[in-house]
From TrEMBL:
Any one biological process term the GO annotation gives: phosphorelay signal transduction system
Domain of life, per lineage: Bacteria
Transmembrane regions: none
UniProt keyword Nucleotide-binding present: no
SMART domains found in the cross-reference section: HTH_LUXR, REC
Database matches in Gene3D superfamilies: 3.40.50.2300
GO molecular function terms listed in the Swiss-Prot or TrEMBL record: DNA binding
Annotated PANTHER family: TRANSCRIPTIONAL REGULATORY PROTEIN YDFI, TWO-COMPONENT RESPONSE REGULATOR
Residue stretches making up the HTH luxR-type domain: 145-210
Protein's name according to its UniProt entry: Two component transcriptional regulator, LuxR family
DNA-binding recorded as keyword: yes
Length: 221
């Protein structure tokens, strides 16, 4: 079983130790480092290139949004999970825009966090229900400056709709009777054509453009 490498960024030592103690009980997760100073953490992440970073938002020096932006700059393949006590709009939207794949609140159960780490490794988003509801409200109406979905092929539109419904690449492949490798190619093309950073933004785009019913779930639980 391939191990998922995780780096913890939180300015509370007790929180970091609690996360480490639990995650290291998982057979497929390895905590490769932690830091309470985000600037220092970015430097370590650049060297370690972990699969997943679990990031707090309110910290000294720089906040978690800026730290997420810097992590994605030095290690684009590293997925960032925001784990915070705050679900305020002014924190949620900038964090996702900065490149966070998932946004969880600290009331999440340890098992749910472990599942989110595994999902992040696969490139799949997980959003706390409260956060998902905010995103649904914020992005419910199409915007004039959105990229044009007409640039997508019919098959890419099928893939985009399934992304917005929270399906993994494997599930999309099974649904469309194509290979998982082909799905990955379609996802890459979708993100490139629509100038989007990741699957979370793709799902938000699809909902905003009403390409799927608004009562469909965002990627998450």
């Amino acid at each position: 079983m391939e191990s998922i490498s995780v780096f913890l960024v939180d300015d509370h030592l007790v929180v970091r130790q609690g996360l480490r103690d639990f995650l290291e009980l998982q057979d497929d997760i390895e905590v490769v480092g932690d830091s309470g100073m985000p600037v220092e953490a970015v430097g370590q992440i650049k060297q370690l290139l972990p699969d997943v970073v679990i990031m707090d938002l309110v910290m000294p020096e720089i906040d978690g949004v800026e730290a997420t932006r810097r992590v994605k700059a030095v290690s684009p393949t590293t997925q960032v999970i925001v784990l915070t006590s705050f679900s305020d709009d002014e924190k949620v939207f900038p964090a996702i825009k900065a490149g966070a794949i998932s946004y969880l609140l600290k009331d999440v159960s340890p098992l749910e966090l472990a599942r989110a780490v595994r999902s992040a490794k696969r490139g799949e988003a997980v959003l706390h229900p409260e956060v998902a509801a905010k995103l649904m409200q914020e992005f419910s109406a199409p915007r004039n400056n959105d990229p044009d979905a007409e640039a997508l092929t019919e098959r890419e539109m099928d893939v985009l709709r399934l992304i917005a419904r929270g399906h993994s690449n494997r599930e999309i492949a099974d649904s469309l009777i194509i290979s998982e490798k082909t799905v990955k190619t379609h996802v890459s093309n979708i993100l490139s054509k629509l100038h989007l950073a990741d699957r979370t933004q793709a799902a938000i785009y699809a909902l905003r453009q009403r390409l799927v019913p608004m009562d469909d779930p965002l990627p998450g639980r």
